């Protein structure tokens, strides 16, 4: 099953990614000023993924990607795929698993893993 993961960008704004069952990022959202904006977009995707448009594109490198949009507003951009078939499978993964996907929120954690030096100091 896929998963939505909310985090903070270095500039303090929020974003989310949708990951595959294997943990690979499928798409990354636009920047949002508020975490609640990410949560609203995630809820909309989860509840009505069929209302979103998937626009397929080709990068200058020849790789394929898509943009997820609604009402003309681009909300996310996918990772790059080496073939059109993989791109299609990425889209299928969203439509199949997004409605059941969990949401993880890492936006409040500055550091997911403690600093290695402090761990060693605590053990001494």
TrEMBL record:
Listed InterPro entries: DUF1508, YegP-like_sf
Domain DUF1508 span(s) in chain numbering: 60-105
Short name of any one Pfam family annotated for the protein: DUF1508
Domain of life: Bacteria
Protein name: YegP family protein
Organism: Flavobacterium suzhouense
């Amino acid at each position: 099953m896929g998963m939505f993961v909310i985090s903070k960008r270095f500039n303090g704004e929020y974003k989310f990614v949708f990951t595959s069952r294997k943990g690979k990022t499928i798409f990354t959202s636009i920047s949002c000023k508020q975490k609640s904006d990410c949560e609203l977009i995630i809820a909309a995707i989860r509840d009505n993924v069929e209302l979103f448009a998937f626009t397929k594109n080709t990068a200058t490198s020849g790789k394929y990607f898509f943009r997820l949009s609604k009402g003309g507003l681009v909300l996310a951009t996918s990772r790059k795929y080496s073939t059109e078939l993989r791109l299609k499978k990425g889209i299928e993964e969203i439509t199949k698993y997004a409605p059941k996907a969990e949401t993880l929120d890492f936006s409040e954690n500055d550091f997911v893993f403690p600093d290695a030096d402090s761990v060693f100091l605590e053990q001494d």
